[in-house]
Design a protein that fits this description.
The chain is an alpha/beta fold. It has a single domain, classed as 2-Layer Sandwich (Transcription Regulator spoIIAA), CATH 3.30.750.24. 42% of the residues lie in helices and 28% in strands. The chain has four helices and five strands. It has a five-stranded mixed beta sheet with strand order 1-2-3-4-5, with helices on both faces. A hairpin with a 4-residue loop joins strand 1 and strand 2. Helix 1 packs parallel to helix 2 and helix 2 packs parallel to helix 3. The longest helix is centred in the first third of the chain and has 19 residues. It is globular. 34% of the residues are buried.
């Protein structure tokens, strides 16, 4: 697997941290199994709250951002799941703002943040 990750069961939500280097053309292939596992943990815990911290280097293409959302149903991401996505760095943050727009337009609950505490505040409200 291209990325390192940790998934933790926190009191009211599932927390996942993903780190590594993006491989152009393999973004969906690399991230999908991690998202699927985190979403499965949410279902097991019977929570609809997921806080994802991305510490990924490298640019994600617009088409890759679109494909991640397009593939969401295949990994178990239902529209009742609330996802706070925290990604550090200016360029990745801009890319994931596009991902947020695509997700919201498709009926998903996703919001992108630069700070973990801001994401958690939104997630738990």
């Amino acid at each position: 697997m291209a990325y390192d990750y940790k998934i933790e069961d926190r009191q009211q939500y599932i927390w996942v941290e993903i780190s590594g280097v993006r491989t152009p053309g393999k973004e969906l292939e690399d991230i999908a199994p991690i998202w699927a596992e985190a979403i499965r943990k949410c279902r097991e815990k019977k929570t609809n709250k997921l806080l994802a911290i991305l510490k990924l280097r490298g640019k994600m293409s617009i088409i890759a951002s679109y494909n991640v959302v397009k593939f969401a149903d295949h990994i178990g991401w239902s529209r009742d799941l609330r996802v706070a996505l925290v990604e550090l760095g200016e360029e990745p943050h801009r890319n994931n703002r596009f991902t947020e727009t695509v997700a919201v337009n498709r009926g998903y609950q996703l919001k992108v943040f630069r700070d973990e505490q801001d994401g958690l505040t939104w997630l738990l409200r």
